[in-house]
Design brief:
Largest sheet: 8 strands, mixed
Oligomer: single chain
CATH architecture of the largest domain: 3-Layer(aba) Sandwich
Order of helices and strands: EHEHEHEHEHEHEHEHEHEEEEHHHEEH
Distance between the termini: 29 Å
Helix content: 25-40%
Number of helices: 13
CATH class of the largest domain: Alpha Beta
Shape: globular
Number of strands: 15
Structural class: alpha/beta
CATH topology of the largest domain: Rossmann fold
Strand order of the largest sheet: 3-2-1-4-5-6-14-15
Strand content: 15-25%
CATH superfamily of the largest domain: NAD(P)-binding Rossmann-like Domain
Length: 364
């Protein structure tokens, strides 16, 4: 199979779809890999490293889109990339379509086969193995980001995350105890903050309680619990995910009135529309904005801040799946694995994922 890796063109995105070690594995399986020149330069993988791994370095993205059977990316295709997609061409990347109807419509128009990392499920439909590594990165970053913007010169209250003897540590509320929420709580606890985690799964609450062993408070999530918690919080981290669907809005605009001025909200769920009513996507170049005295951090590609770590972690997760597609063809690869089939979002002009379709108002 001819596999294409274009350079990411979303603003301030330095990750790359395949790193050289992944290219080497693809080539060892008998596949031809084409990488756009400079695709990995932002994280220290120059063209020579790709050539040594067996790839062909191509000068422009249109050449790759014109030739490749499968395009492997990191972020969703930008409008100019959607126009280059061909019927029956496989697109394997993050899509996050529930919050992006124009992209969905462009993919439908292209008649491509769009498989989204974020909706591939694990054994028995549990877990999101291709989203997990980026959720881990974003979760850990969220606590660091929250601590940074809590500083006075950044517009915060001037509270140190872990405090010092005789002073109170910051209070951190984590909404959602999944992979991102767990990692956010883990780093916040490690920084000495007083952490509370909200989740709706009794089984997950037990797991979190056992892991943190009293170092974090674990509560069942209700509207009343959110309303009780957020006036006390210095940092609120939104980490709720419904696979493929729009994120639920857990904090309303009205609730901002009961929060502390100078507190910080970090919305990890912004790719899926965000779990705060006042959230809208931001970039690393302009990451925050203020609403009613509350700092909002809603960067849509948080792991892009640490692109080398993120690209390597992502490749470890996606490589076995990409090899299945390349070795077997997409139809056989997906047919043999129900969890992998869940990644099929759009196929030959039709929305295939139920949650995506419902969020966008399309029929399945």
């Amino acid at each position: 199979m001819y596999i294409g890796v274009p350079k990411e063109i979303k603003k301030q995105e330095h990750r790359v779809g395949l790193i050289p070690s992944s290219v080497r594995e693809m080539v060892a399986h008998g596949h031809h890999v084409m990488v756009e020149t400079g695709a990995g330069a932002g994280i220290g993988f120059d063209d020579d490293s790709y050539i040594q791994a067996g790839a062909q370095v191509i000068s422009t993205a249109p050449e790759i889109f014109e030739t490749a059977d499968m395009i492997i990316k990191v972020k969703e295709p930008q409008p100019q990339e959607c126009k280059m997609l061909r019927p029956e061409q496989i697109l394997f990347t993050y899509l996050h379509l529930a919050a992006d109807k124009p992209q969905a419509e462009a993919l439908i128009q292209s008649n491509c086969i769009a498989i989204a990392y974020e909706t591939v499920t694990g054994l028995n439909g549990k877990g999101l193995p291709l989203l997990a590594p980026m959720s881990e990165v974003a979760g850990r970053l969220s606590a660091q980001v929250g601590a940074h913007y809590l500083m006075k010169h950044m517009g915060g209250q001037g509270v140190l995350m872990g405090g010092v003897p005789g002073t109170p540590a910051a209070r951190v509320a984590v909404l959602g105890g999944g992979v991102a929420g767990f990692n956010a709580a883990r780093v916040a606890v490690g920084m000495g903050a007083r952490v509370t985690i909200l989740d709706k799964s009794p089984d997950r609450l037990r797991e979190l309680d056992e892991h943190f062993n009293g170092n974090a408070e674990v509560l069942y999530s209700t509207t009343a619990a959110v309303e009780t918690l957020i006036p006390k919080a210095d940092i609120i981290i939104g980490a709720v995910l419904v696979p493929g669907a729009s994120a639920p809005r857990l904090v309303t605009r009205e609730m901002l009135k009961i929060m502390k001025k100078g507190s910080v909200m970090v919305d990890i769920a912004i790719d899926q529309g965000g779990c705060f009513e006042t959230s809208h996507p931001t970039t690393h170049a302009d990451p925050v904005y203020d609403v009613d005295g509350i700092t909002h951090y809603c960067v849509a590609n948080m792991p892009g801040a640490v692109p080398k770590t993120s690209a390597i972690a992502l490749n470890h997760a996606i490589l076995p799946y990409a090899l299945q597609i390349a070795d077997k063809g997409w139809e056989q690869a997906l047919a043999s694995d129900a969890g992998f089939f869940a990644g099929l979002n759009i196929c030959r002009g039709q929305v295939m994922h139920k949650a995506v379709a419902e969020s966008l108002g399309f029929s399945v």
